[in-house]
Amino acid sequence: MKKSTVLLGIVSSLFFSNLLLAQETPTNEDLLKRIEALEAEKAKPKEWDASFYGWVRTEYNFDSRQSAYSREMHLNLYPLDEKLDANGKDINAAGGSNFLAITSRVGIRFKGPDVWGAKASGNIEADFFGNTELNKSSAGSGSMGLMRLRHATATLAWPKTAVTFGQTWYPSVVPDVFPGVANFNSGIIFNPFGWAGQIKVAQKLTPELTLSLVAYKDREFQTANATGASFNSATFNSSIPTFHGQLQYKTKTVTTGLGAEYQSLKPVIESAGLVSNEKVNSEMFFGYFKYANDKIITKLYGITGGNLHHLVMLGGFAGYTEPNGQESYKPTKTSALWVDVASANPKVAPGVFFGYTKNSGVDAGFKNLYVRGASGARILDDVWRASARVDFKQNKFNISPEIEYTAATWGDLNAEGKAQNNMKDVGNLRAMVRVMYSF
């Protein structure tokens, strides 16, 4: 009896299990519908999408001489003038080194639903370079190691027109034609550098030719401070932005362009106890060229103009005393050019860089000089830099050793803001290794 009962239970269980399986097993028609639904979902464009990117970047630098720099020797500009002690020895002939990872970076790119028929996208990017330098009068380290905003933009793109607003590169910085050096100085003082709040309209005239018009305000990097001015007050006091125009021609192998801009800054609102309406007005012109194929990448850039201080270049402006005691201003003139040639090999890519910049002074008769590249009664005449590097790449990992030599000629400051007499050539040899792991 027991055996019969057990056997009956087993048979019943098998029967009902098969019945349930038969009910749950989808038919070929059901499977086809599910596949079609999944394919339709994949084909449907996403309303929102985002992707993260960035890198961990570490650099070791050794310098043979003291230089003008920022962030604990990380970003070197030019070697300092000779400084003799009581025994006639050059104090600035001392070398130094440092190990930093503050240029590690993180960013996010995102896109959303169309806006007024335009494709909408955005970008936010930051690093840990900070906005302020080491405070030498205390144990503090400024904002080094803290997150710094680099880019924060939104773009609306129609078939032939794009509008970008937010903070991004100065329009004279051309990412496609940028020095390929390993050093974080990125060719600074020969190539414009920095970010600005702006609005940019780019219009495609042909598939290869684009006209860009930009209005911007200096932010992190800015003009020099006149007597009585505060940080970036010359920009804040100005009622109009800097205006920039650029024409770029781009194909698969060639990128070339030229541009110009006009800047009007108001260093102070009060001078000699009176309301000041004095401004420093300047123009700038530049051009660039790039040729790239699967073997070689060649880049060339040239720039000339007045008051290029905000682009982290030599120069600035001079102050003149007017009959009423107030100070008026005129821009100093600076020119620079650079060339970079590198292999396009995806695994091992050597490259070389050469840059040159010249201080062309200002009108005679100034009382004060507000420039980069001067120290007391001494001023830079010119600076040149040559470097050689090799990029070793494996997937997203990159090791780049580089040797760089920067030479500067200093002289006594004359009435036209130029170097004259007692000329002294000094040089700094920088040996460095950059290691990057990107994502």
Automatic annotation (TrEMBL):
SUPFAM superfamilies membership: Porins
Keywords tagged on the record: Signal
Signal peptide: 1-22
Name under which the protein is recorded: Porin
